[in-house]
Write a structure and sequence with these properties.
Layout (H helix, E strand, L loop, with lengths): L9 E7 L3 H12 L4 E4 L8 H4 L20 H6 L9 H14 L6 E2 L4 E7 L4 E6 L4 E9 L22 E3 L14 E5 L3 H13 L2 E6 L5 E3 L7 H9 L1 H10 L18 H14 L16 H18 L3 H7 L12 E3 L2 H4 L5 E5 L5 E4 L3 E4 L2 E4 L2 E4 L8 H4 L2 E3 L6 H4 L18 E3 L12 H22 L4 E3 L1 H16 L29 H13 L5 E3 L1
Parallel strand pairs: 1-2, 1-6, 2-3, 4-17, 6-18, 7-16, 8-9, 8-16, 9-12, 10-11
Antiparallel strand pairs: 4-5, 5-6, 13-14, 14-15, 19-20
The structure holds 3-acetylpyridine adenine dinucleotide (N01).
The site of 3-acetylpyridine adenine dinucleotide (N01) has 26 residues, from α5.
């Protein structure tokens, strides 16, 4: 962005990010007559779906549900070609949304927000960008995504590697051809699991460096389910309400039984049915206590381990691929296409870093247990500084110049995952302390955008200028988020939900596990009570 940008620099709202959240925030706030500027680091809209161009990148919530629901015509017009659409199609959808709602004229691309500082006297925020522009706004809406701050581990010798290196979350725009090359992949989370089968098909040899095996279910991708497509078209309003009231933002009958209440054969049959369905939470939602009861969880974990043993021919490789020592689902589960079977290929090697960690990276490859695995290309599928990373990557200063980084030094504090005490008129969409990461993100995004937009409408009606999370309300909500998390098995596992994948990050449960529908009902109640817990002036 140039400093001679003709658009106004003083607006009602600055939105940071033009992914699913930022695009809808712009549309909604503009619709309320507010002047809005959106600043986006990428050279196009799309957020996560702009950056994640690695082979195999696709959503793992069915596309018919992983879509906006705010506009019935949009939902009826758009046709997904696959049950789980691949990244180019999701990006095309977001580009279509930007064009269809004429959003681009208020979006500045290729520009990163560096800072947002509150001017307490003026009651306005000053936002600076790496393009040299200073914007001022009454409100700042942070739509920066949960998983946009890449995590590149500090491995000795990392910068010595002579060949090309890639991170799944910052994949080049030009196609990468691995034909005839020896490729190494570090990381076996959702990104690695999607990427590995496709790289294996192309590369001369693929070496997978696995620290923690993950539970993955077959996606059974294919054409979208015609019945679900029909519901989106013909019964849009009811379907939207159902999604919004559900536990995870997807259509799934809530389980009513404990896994331990039913005979083993019945349980096995249910898991098998869910395995064959190919959905992310199918098995996790087969019984109502799988994320709370270790013994129940063990039955699901064991079921998946047995499937791995069936698919993978070499018993040692199968054993190395089997997750052990943590509960199923407490690291985000994955959906794959031929992931485990990929390890039956002669040209794929699995290196189990649990047995021996990476010693160092050299110019020629990766050394484990004294063996140098020679590589031409190295792919980091090593994830993100999740949820707080993208927010703390901006120099945010609220009252008395206090930074968000200082405020969150011991972990994020937030009221409803939306507002932070000391940072009036600043909103975190799908922020820590909201269901976000434990839900269909699009459903959670729409809820936050609409709730914040309604709040701003409320302020205007009251002639108020300032809204700020009350310190006590924030304290209680932050505690509630931890109590809810601690009632589950999640905190026992090292995962990005716990901040455990980033050295030095405070260990707290980042998302809220109360369920999308319950959380929405709570937020709506807060609104009905005049935005209880927010100080409005
Ligand atoms: O990242 P991850 P991701 N040495 O953090 C390993 C979403 N997503 O990009 O588990 C060796 O899950 C690390 O090992 P460990 C989804 O929400 C969605 O895959 O820490 N290995 C792990 O195996 C997902 O959960 C889709 O022991 C190291 C891997 O790198 C989230 O994004 C697709 C290491 C990182 O896994 C993040 O997924 C893709 C080291 N020093 C992503 N450091 C959809 O399908 C890390 N690892 C929608």
């Amino acid at each position: 962005m140039s400093t001679t940008d003709p658009r106004p620099a003083d607006v009602d709202v600055v939105v940071v990010g033009a992914g699913f959240a930022g695009l809808y925030a712009l549309h909604r706030l503009r619709g309320q007559g507010m002047s809005v500027r959106v600043v986006e680091a990428g050279s196009d809209v799309g957020g996560t779906w702009f950056w994640n161009r690695y082979p195999g990148a696709r959503c793992d919530i069915e596309s018919v549900f992983y879509s906006y629901s705010f506009d019935a015509d949009l939902a009826r017009e758009w046709e997904w070609s696959e049950r789980y659409a691949a990244q180019p199609e999701i990006l095309a959808y977001l580009q279509h949304v930007a064009d269809r709602f004429d959003l681009r004229r208020d979006i500045t691309l290729d520009t990163r927000v560096l800072s947002a500082h509150l001017d307490e006297t003026a009651g306005r925020w000053t936002v600076t960008t790496d393009g040299g522009e200073r914007l001022t706004a009454a409100y700042v809406v942070l739509a920066v995504g949960l998983l946009s701050s890449t995590n590149l581990p500090q491995i000795e010798g990392r910068d010595d590697f002579a060949g090309p290196t890639y991170h799944t979350g910052a994949w080049p725009h030009e196609p990468v051809d691995f034909t005839g090359r020896r490729v190494g992949v570090i990381g076996t989370g959702s990104s690695g699991i999607q990427l590995i089968p496709l790289v294996a098909e192309q590369a001369e040899h693929l070496t997978v460096f696995q620290r923690t095996p993950n539970f993955s279910l077959p996606a059974k991708n294919g054409a979208p389910d015609p019945a679900k497509v029909a519901r989106v078209r013909e019964d849009h309003a009811a379907m939207k309400e159902e999604l919004r009231g559900s536990s995870y933002g997807i259509l799934l009958e809530p389980p009513t039984q404990s896994a331990l209440e039913v005979p083993a054969a019945e349980r096995e049959a249910k898991y098998r049915e869910r395995w064959d369905e190919g959905t992310l939470t199918g098995i996790l939602q087969a019984y109502n206590d799988l994320v709370r009861n270790e013994e129940s969880n063990h039955t699901a974990a064991e079921f998946v381990r047995q499937r791995i043993a069936e698919i993978v021919h070499d018993p040692q490789v199968a054993a190395d691929l089997m997750p052990q020592g943590y509960a199923y689902g407490t690291k985000r589960p994955c959906l794959d296409t031929d992931y485990y079977a990929t390890f039956n290929r002669d040209d794929v090697t699995l290196v189990n870093l649990r047995r021996t960690p990476i010693e160092r990276i050299t110019a020629r490859g990766v050394v484990v247990d004294g063996v140098e695995h020679e590589l031409d290309d190295l792919v980091y599928a090593t994830g993100y500084d999740a949820m707080t990373g993208p927010l703390l990557g901006i120099d945010i200063r609220g009252r008395e110049g206090r930074t968000l980084r200082e405020t969150w030094a011991d972990g994020p504090r937030s009221y409803l995952g939306i507002g932070v005490s000391g940072f009036p008129n600043l909103f975190t969409l799908t922020g820590p302390g909201s269901p976000s990461a434990l839900s269909n993100a699009v459903v959670s995004i729409e809820q936050h955008v609409e709730w914040v937009a309604d709040l701003l409408g409320h302020l205007r009606e009251r002639g108020a200028a300032l809204v700020e999370a009350d310190d006590q309300a924030e304290k209680e909500w932050t505690e509630h988020v931890q109590v809810a998390g601690n009632a589950t098995l999640y905190p026992r596992t090292d995962s990005w939900y716990m901040g455990a994948n980033v050295p030095g990050k405070p260990r707290v449960f980042l998302p809220y596990i109360g369920g999308v529908g319950n959380y929405r009902a709570h937020c709506d109640q807060v609104a009905r009570e005049g935005y209880r817990g927010f100080v409005i002036a």
